[in-house]
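Supplementary Text 2. Reproducibility record for the structural model of the 400-residue chain.

All settings were left at their defaults, and a single model was retained for analysis rather than an ensemble. We include the record here because the model underlies the residue-level annotations in Supplementary Table 4.
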Amino acid sequence: MLSAINFIIRIIIAAALGILIGSERERSLKQRMIGPRTFSIICLFGSLLSILTYYDFPLSEIFPLLGMVAIFSYTYYAYKKGKKILGITTLMLLPIVYLIGLFVGFGFYIQAVASVFILLAILISGKTIHEKIEQLRGSEVNEMIEFGLILFVVYPLLPKEPIVINGFMIDLFVLFAFIVLVSLINFMAFLASRIFKKATVGLMGFTSGIINSTLAISFFAKKKDRNSVTGARAAVLGSLVRNLVLLGAVIPQFFLHLLPFFAIIIAIPAVLIFRERKQARSKIFVGQPFSLLNGIKLSVALFICMLIFQAISLYFPKYIIPTALFTGAASSAYTILSLSPIADKVGLEVISNSVVFAVMGSLIISGVAAVMYGKKQFYKPIIIQLAVSFIIAALYLVFF
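Retained model, structure tokens:
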């Protein structure tokens, strides 16, 4: 049995939450048929029925269910009588508000309040959501569905344990985790571009660098925009942050050992971007979020890279570190992921040096891309930045 204070608190919260939703409906729809009073009463109704289950009334445990039947019946009646006045959204809110009242009555205050504010956010931004959806192309919707299928259907079904064949370890879970991570970041950047029309140079560079810093630098070099240097710096920053995150995710036992190295080389582009932030105001359009074909290419390339490193660790272990330099030029992220299956076999020194060499390979190829595709005013500051990072990496190899 509830105390009088608890009883009063619950019905006050229920009534207040109902008033919030009802006020939004009345304000946005300019109608008084279903407004604050109706929604408040429905929420209070649900709260009272759930509170009754704490008392020894006959059949009190089924009162909330009977209330739900009554609310659905009322919703159907209101739809038939007032469909020319009320929209489907308003009518669907009636049983939802009743359920929120049940939550309050059973003492789930945080869940109830969170549900109300999420509902309000959806209702208030409804017009904006409609406008943004109308801007999506059919191909973009299809690619979003493909991404959803991979993330929520294919990925959960993958085996969590690696498959071992003749000494070669095939970790499908890690393979797809990287693809999902990269695709999710690209997808979030795409949504930001649709909401804000375009992405800033810094955001575009950072998200592009997470996927492939060399391609991102090539893109900015060809733009010939005065803020392209900032975009290229952000691409390098995105690449380094991605590598640090991957290191902590797939080789956590060596994360702290390499953290000082990454902290220093991440600080270089971060400080430069911070200094240039007021000038870097130009916008760049972000393309489509994901394509199944690109996902397959990513998985095949990463799979080959993993097999190469495992073969070298089995038959030519002394060539692991120089191999990391060359594979890092292609993709430092792939290299770090490929090192994870052999980390325990080869030890701390080999893995640490291989990661640093992979970063150095990435810095070299980024500098080559800047010189090949950009003019002097673009590649000169980028080369200086990359050279400083390269020297720091070399010093780390010598002293640590």
